[in-house]
């Protein structure tokens, strides 16, 4: 499995940004974050002590539709759990996250959006880190398809996803909590448990899988955990930003 | 300094990295928070039952003298007002008691008292209009959600413009740099007065170099705001004023986009001055 | 909000003072473009334009659809540009501002109304099916001169794009996949580009390719749309203070030089990309042979 690649702080005007290349779907997503900013007309938010999070997903070659609004909702809920909207400078302000699919296949209308969701989540996270928005923790996510034979397929292509029995997107925090569980299609609980274990192995390696499982092989199949890849992308950027200081020391 | 420790949100700060020299309380800077959950690995009850975790990605920075610890995060981030920071603010409009100023775009205005200037009385206060610039200090960021940021161009305790230079900025030009670069420039310019103790504080020699080269032409005045603004005025340079200002601006913005070594910074200064045909 | 923060008096005055001495903040001459870089992505019609610190991504796509009833021989061509908070924090997501309306209108008139893309060639079956070509412009960084940069992106994209081949057999339209048949280039009739000038100091100073701050400090702007042959397909001066007629006369020749220069850069980038693709295609072919 080829690890995803990303570059942080690629844009000039936005406060934080990230360009993310997902190897399995071939999509290239550009994310930007502006925070904290004033949101005019939305000053009397429902929770004035907290920041308002806005997510906007822009497809590459089509007008935005229902699919985009649906993933925006998912992203907003998840990001709302990790963004510390009560830190200094953030209450009553907005965190505006814009994600544009600028390369690779589009999700055509009616197709499952779930296969792009992990890439969107990772782009949003990296852009938030690039903007130094306070977060309680980081996370990583993956998508798994279960085919008719019960085989679990990691990060399926659009064709695989269309023929799959069920699709599952799971996100785990850096502390191992299950942050997101979006499923689509027909499946039973045993299947879901298997999917969860496999997803956890992909995100964190095998150490978090319950001891009774026979999934020790998962690490060899899936290469290094996503968590580590994401950390490396951020570390690269930090070293680049503080090159002057590190060299001087 | 040993190899720097890079942290991501949620990472705990290992206690060996914290300053341990004094008994004074530890000061937490930006990007850190204290959680009072019990540490799962400590068994003895004598150790405090809370942990320090990062909330931003960056390098852990410790200051043993002040017993402070903070995280140096992305230099491209948006400026968040913090008490005692020096900023360059732009007047947006005024009301009977206050000037309403812009520190960062797309952010709420900060207020600056009409009398918060050195020696200002109802009769002698400066008459600032929309678009004027002031060099001010963040007095307070207020308590509670959405509180107003208050600025002052005077130290309320002494009634003087401390540190020097606070007040309206007349003429000149402002250049935008990243907040990280503004912090570095500030560090570099504040310690350069002590006469070369070391080559280039914070990895910057560009201001010293420009100062040396432009001295003959009349020198320049500079004010650096933590909000990523640098004000430059070369009005002493006579005919070369505009070109000298442009030269300084180009050096700063180039350096902000491309990290350069001390030798390359000197080359940059010479190159830009040559291109603008400024004689040194 | 949809509005950039206003300039300070110091910035406004300084930009003007400097221009009076023929100096621009980034050291350019009045008629000089910022460094321009045009690059192409993996798929056809994917262009990245970097003009100084303004950057954008254009994507061209095509699908089969039904032509309009009143124009049964014409295919469809749309330019979609939406300004998101990515390009500038001053822009609101999902809300159309004045700038967006204005720029979209100019792009439409320079490229679409001048018939740069021959829409008749997009017809498959009269009145039944045709190609609908769509150009999506994503502004990723905004530092002035949106119109010129977007024009470059769209024109480069249209020249780079290849649509799938489609044939009519027994009244049925068959669309072949990109790997089944060599895809078809679009029929470009001419290559119009926009060139925007800004005037200062009561029209005495006129500059090309203004940055965001220069735009804000300017009195008025003039947009020319023309092609390599010098055919003027668009000219506008929507707002601002009056500009002398001689400026229009003098600057059209400058604009023509710039159009040729930009089209040259685009052609070069297209050729380099084509060569790269040919090389890659050959490598893949030989690999396929080896597999056998």
Automatic annotation (TrEMBL), chain A:
Which GO CC terms are listed, alphabetically?
cytoplasmic exosome (RNase complex); nuclear exosome (RNase complex); nucleolus
| SUPFAM superfamilies referenced in this protein's UniProt entry, alphabetically | Ribonuclease PH domain 2-like, Ribosomal protein S5 domain 2-like
Keyword line? Exosome, Nucleus, rRNA processing
Q: What biological process terms from GO does the record include?
A: nuclear mRNA surveillance; poly(A)-dependent snoRNA 3'-end processing; rRNA catabolic process; rRNA processing; U4 snRNA 3'-end processing
The UniProt GO MF terms for this protein read: RNA binding
Q: Where are the transmembrane segments?
A: none
Translocase: is it a keyword of this entry?
Answer: no
Q: Where in the cell is it found?
A: Nucleus
The name this protein carries in UniProt is Putative exosome complex subunit Rrp46
Record organism: Aspergillus saccharolyticus JOP 1030-1
UniProtKB/TrEMBL annotation, chain B:
Q: What is this protein called?
A: Exosome complex exonuclease Rrp40
- Keywords recorded for this protein, A-Z: Exosome, RNA-binding
Gene Ontology CC annotations of this record: cytoplasmic exosome (RNase complex); nuclear exosome (RNase complex)
Which InterPro entries does the record match to this protein?
Exosome_RNA_bind1/RRP40/RRP4 (IPR026699), KH_dom_type_1 (IPR004088), KH_dom_type_1_sf (IPR036612), NA-bd_OB-fold (IPR012340), Rrp40_N_euk (IPR041054)
- Which residue range or ranges hold the K Homology domain? 172-237
Instruction: Enumerate the PANTHER family for this protein.
Output: EXOSOME COMPLEX COMPONENT RRP40, PNAS-3 RELATED
The GO terms this record gives for MF are:
RNA binding
Q: Which domain of life is it from?
A: Eukaryota
Sorted alphabetically, the Gene Ontology BP terms of this entry are: CUT catabolic process; exonucleolytic trimming to generate mature 3'-end of 5.8S rRNA from tricistronic rRNA transcript (SSU-rRNA, 5.8S rRNA, LSU-rRNA); nuclear polyadenylation-dependent rRNA catabolic process; poly(A)-dependent snoRNA 3'-end processing; TRAMP-dependent tRNA surveillance pathway; U4 snRNA 3'-end processing
Subcellular localization, per the record? Nucleus
Record-linked Pfam families? KH_6, Rrp40_N, RRP40_S1
What is the native source organism of this protein? Answer: Aspergillus saccharolyticus JOP 1030-1
Domain named Exosome complex exonuclease Rrp40 N-terminal: residues? 26-77
TrEMBL record, chain C:
> Which CDD domains does the annotation name?
RNase_PH_RRP45
What is a single molecular function from GO for this protein?
mRNA 3'-UTR AU-rich region binding
Q: Could you confirm whether the keyword Disulfide bond appears in this record?
A: no
Principal localisation: cytoplasm
Q: Locate the Exoribonuclease phosphorolytic domain: which residues? A: 32-164, 192-242
Keywords in alphabetical order, please.
Cytoplasm, Exosome, Nucleus, Ribonucleoprotein, Ribosomal protein, RNA-binding, rRNA processing
Task: Show the GO cellular component annotation of the record.
Answer: cytoplasmic exosome (RNase complex); nuclear exosome (RNase complex); nucleolus; ribosome
Entry's localization field = Cytoplasm; Nucleus, Nucleolus
SUPFAM superfamilies listed in its UniProt record: Ribonuclease PH domain 2-like, Ribosomal protein S5 domain 2-like
Provide the GO biological process annotations: exonucleolytic trimming to generate mature 3'-end of 5.8S rRNA from tricistronic rRNA transcript (SSU-rRNA, 5.8S rRNA, LSU-rRNA); nuclear mRNA surveillance; nuclear polyadenylation-dependent rRNA catabolic process; rRNA catabolic process; TRAMP-dependent tRNA surveillance pathway; U1 snRNA 3'-end processing; U4 snRNA 3'-end processing; U5 snRNA 3'-end processing
A Pfam cross-reference name: RNase_PH
Which family is it part of? Belongs to the RNase PH family.
The protein in question is named Exosome complex component RRP45
Q: What is the lineage of its organism?
A: Eukaryota, Fungi, Dikarya, Ascomycota, Pezizomycotina
């Amino acid at each position: 499995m080829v690890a995803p690649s990303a570059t942080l702080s690629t844009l000039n005007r936005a406060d934080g940004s990230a360009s993310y290349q997902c190897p399995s779907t071939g999509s290239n997503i550009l994310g930007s974050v502006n925070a904290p900013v004033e949101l005019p007309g939305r000053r009397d938010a429902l929770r004035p002590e907290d920041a308002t999070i806005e997510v906007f997903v822009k497809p590459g070659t089509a007008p935005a539709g229902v699919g985009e609004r649906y993933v925006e909702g998912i992203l907003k809920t998840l990001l709302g759990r990790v963004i510390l909207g009560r830190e200094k400078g953030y209450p009553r302000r907005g965190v505006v996250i814009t994600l544009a699919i600028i390369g690779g296949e589009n999700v055509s209308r009616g197709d499952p959006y779930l296969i792009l969701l992990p890439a969107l989540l990772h782009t949003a996270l990296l852009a938030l880190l690039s903007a130094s928005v306070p977060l309680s923790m980081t996370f990583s996510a993956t998508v798994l398809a279960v085919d008719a034979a019960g085989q679990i397929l990691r990060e399926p292509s659009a064709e695989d996803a269309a023929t799959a029995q069920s699709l599952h997107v799971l996100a785990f925090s850096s502390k191992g909590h299950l942050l997101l569980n979006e499923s689509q299609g027909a499946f039973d609980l045993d299947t879901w448990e298997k999917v969860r274990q496999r997803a956890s192995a992909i995100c964190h390696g095998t150490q978090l899988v319950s001891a009774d499982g026979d999934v020790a092989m998962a690490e060899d199949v899936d290469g290094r955990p996503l968590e580590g890849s994401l950390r490396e992308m951020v570390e690269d950027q930090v070293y680049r930003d503080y090159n002057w200081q590190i060299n001087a020391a | 300094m040993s190899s720097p420790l890079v942290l991501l949100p949620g990472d705990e700060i290992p206690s060996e990295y914290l300053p341990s020299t004094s008994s004074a309380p530890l000061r937490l800077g930006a990007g850190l928070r204290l959680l009072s959950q019990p540490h799962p690995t400590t068994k003895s009850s004598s150790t405090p039952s809370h942990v320090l975790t990062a909330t931003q990605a960056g390098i852990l920075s410790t200051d043993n003298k002040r017993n402070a610890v903070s995280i140096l995060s992305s230099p491209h981030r948006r400026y968040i007002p913090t008490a005692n920071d020096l900023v360059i603010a732009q007047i947006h409009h005024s009301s009977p008691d206050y000037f309403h100023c812009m520190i960062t775009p797309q952010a709420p205005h900060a207020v600056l008292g009409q009398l918060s200037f050195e020696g200002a009385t109802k009769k002698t206060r400066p008459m600032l209009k929309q678009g004027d610039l002031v060099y001010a200090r963040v007095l307070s960021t207020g308590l509670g959600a959405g509180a107003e940021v208050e600025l002052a161009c005077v130290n309320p305790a002494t009634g003087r413009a401390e540190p020097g230079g606070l007040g309206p900025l007349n003429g000149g030009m402002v250049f935008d740099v990243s907040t990280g670069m503004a912090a570095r420039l500030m560090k570099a310019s504040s310690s350069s007065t002590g006469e070369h103790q070391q080559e280039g504080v914070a990895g910057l020699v560009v201001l010293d170099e420009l100062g040396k080269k432009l001295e003959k032409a009349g020198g320049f005045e500079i004010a650096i705001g933590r909000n990523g603004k640098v004000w430059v005025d070369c009005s002493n340079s006579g005919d070369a004023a505009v070109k000298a200002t442009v030269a300084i601006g180009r050096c700063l913005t180039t350096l902000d986009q491309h990290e350069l070594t001390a030798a390359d910074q000197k080359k940059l200064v010479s190159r830009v001055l040559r291109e603008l045909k400024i004689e040194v | 909000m949809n509005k950039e923060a206003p300039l300070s008096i110091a910035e406004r005055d300084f930009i003007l003072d400097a221009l009076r001495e023929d100096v621009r903040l980034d050291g350019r001459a009045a008629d000089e473009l910022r460094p321009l870089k045009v690059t192409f992505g993996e798929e056809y019609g994917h262009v990245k334009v970097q003009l100084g610190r303004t950057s954008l991504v254009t994507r061209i796509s095509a699908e089969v659809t039904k032509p309009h009833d009143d124009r049964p021989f014409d295919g469809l061509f749309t330019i979609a540009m939406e300004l998101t908070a990515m390009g500038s924090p001053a822009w609101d997501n999902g809300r159309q501002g004045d700038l967006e309306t204005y720029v979209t209108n100019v792009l439409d008139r320079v490229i679409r109304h001048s018939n740069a893309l021959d829409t008749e060639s997009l017809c498959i079956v009269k009145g039944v099916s045709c190609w609908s070509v769509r150009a999506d412009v994503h502004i990723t960084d905004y530092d002035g001169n949106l119109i010129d940069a977007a024009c470059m992106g769209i024109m480069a994209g249209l020249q780079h794009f290849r649509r799938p081949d489609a044939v009519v057999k027994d009244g049925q339209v068959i669309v072949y996949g990109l790997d089944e048949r060599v895809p078809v280039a679009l029929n470009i009739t001419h290559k119009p580009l926009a060139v925007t000038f800004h005037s200062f100091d009561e029209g005495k100073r006129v500059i090309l390719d203004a940055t965001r701050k220069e735009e804000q400090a300017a009195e008025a702007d003039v947009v020319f749309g023309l092609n390599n042959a010098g055919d003027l397909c668009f000219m506008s001066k929507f707002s601002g203070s009056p500009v002398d007629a001689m400026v229009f006369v003098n600057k059209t020749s400058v604009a023509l030089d710039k159009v040729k220069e930009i089209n040259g850069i685009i052609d070069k980038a297209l050729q380099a990309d084509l060569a790269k693709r040919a090389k890659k295609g050959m490598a893949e072919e030989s690999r396929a042979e080896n597999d056998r």
